Amino acid sequence: MENKNNPKVYYEESYPPVPTKSVKFWRSCVIWQIYRFFVLNYKVMKIVAFGHN
Amino acid sequence: MAKVVVLGAGIAGHTATAFLKKKLGKKHEVIVISPSPYYQWIPSNIWVGVGRMKEDEVRFKLDKVYKKWGVIFHQAKAVGIYPEGDVKDAKPYVIAEYTSEGKIGEQFKIEYDFLVNATGPKLNFEATEGLGPKGFTESVCSYSHASEAWKNLQHVFSKLEKGEKQKIVIGTGHPMATCQGAAFEYILNVAYEFKQRNLSDKAELIWLTNEYELGDFGMSGAYVKRNGYITSTKIFAESVLAENNVKWIKRAGVKKVEKGLIHYETLAGEYKTQEFDFAMLIPSFAGAGLKAYANDGTDITTRLFAPNGFMKVDADYTPKTYEEFNVKDWPETYQNPVYKNIFAVGIAFAPPHPISKPQTSPNGTSIFPTPPRTGMPSGVTGKITALNIAEWILKGDDSLKHRASMGKMGAACIVSAGFSLTKGQAATMTVNPIVPDWEKYPDYGRNIKYTVGEIGLAGHWMKLMLHYMFIHKAKGYPFWWLIPE
Ligand SMILES: Cc1cc2nc3c(=O)[nH]c(=O)nc-3n(C[C@H](O)[C@H](O)[C@H](O)COP(=O)(O)OP(=O)(O)OC[C@H]3O[C@@H](n4cnc5c(N)ncnc54)[C@H](O)[C@@H]3O)c2cc1C
Question: Residue B335 belongs to what domain range?
Fold first, then answer.
């Protein structure tokens, strides 16, 4: 039976963290994301470069 | 003149071919045998599956590129390997069957000095009754499957627009399927497309997986540094799904699919069903099904291949329990231990054992992902094998000094979560190494310094940039070799 009083608890989906408005803002803020683009590329390149000899 | 035959023109085979030809030049022959006339950049099939890219944006014809490189190309599929030749001639050879129009089924023989098996996975839909495009579910594992998925997804949109409720199930279609990352990307992209059309409220999205915990991805999960915490990919994956209103069913091994109904067994041993209107489930993977024969015609397939059809290489295949699994079991040179002039790269090599912890239901069904071998290790193993073979041919150096173990190699996984230059998103995750090394990194099995776990628009730009970069590289455009695998 659908629980109308406590509909959103005791479900697997109710436990994980979900992003706040501010997190969502930074995720799509173009200026910040341009900076993150370079940081992420640098980090990924480091992994690629050291992976084999 | 040496003759190198490469079977397969996917990420591993095509990379091997490019480097072989670059190093060997005109003096030696490089021959490619592959059943499709196209090279396809498989990771972008996800975008074909949601109508954001057309088939021709993720594929191109191989013959033009190979002609430019001086590589001989046969549109055919290899069916048998004769590593000792036959009674008349000891020269090893391959038997292949043409797949090009006008010649379909015609067999031919190609001799080799070195053989690179890069045949990737056979999409083993037959292992699950009713699975796949010939059954009742979709696939995004090839561009044609992804196009078909997009066609059928549009029917879902029309029904939702009419106010009908729709159940969408995406995940793994076999108790031991791998490649969760691709299915995960697809469900996030489908969720994004629903949102863009304001259809989310009528669509129920369900992630159905054989993983013990979400975020296992066939590599026993990972830990990433995120917002001042070290977080497991379980939390990361659950958080992404919860944010996108996706429910999940985990520890589920799909046994059979009927029209609109998935039958699965749980790790607890229960038999359950899940209804669906649209389902995209990844099949199990097997080897390409090549056979091998001794010079007297005796079948020696088991000498070259593991029971799952993948080729044996320099891994430690001693049966082991999870507690005994060791990073040193993983191969470094991808050379066949019996026939030293045969190599298997990319998905074609047989892994020594799973990375995830093997799990069995009380009914004896193994329900856990087999190890993934993603694009980066496929490209890297193709490249180092090409360099080793080239040095063997050119300098007589058979020491195979170029090495790459999945226990040392890192991997970056960019999980697309929506296609748009301004509103798109992707989750960027990195692990190093792919196979955890608990001796070297006793806390997390991997180097936590090199991990990233971040969601944002930048990830989408990276994924899009990689699409264009890798197609540039695969076409052999100027300075292609500067682009890393
Ligand atoms: C939808 C999807 C999304 C993915 N996304 C990512 C991602 O974002 N990042 C990532 O790193 N990885 C991703 N992967 C995984 C990646 O695509 C694989 O790791 C990679 O394609 C493996 O390369 P391969 O060369 O071993 O196999 P394949 O690319 O499958 O190539 C195999 C080749 O062998 C040929 N062949 C088959 N049988 C024969 C035969 N008998 N004789 C001769 N040739 C034969 C095939 O036609 C093909 O050309 C994704 C996979 C899928 C399905």
Answer: 3-123+285-395
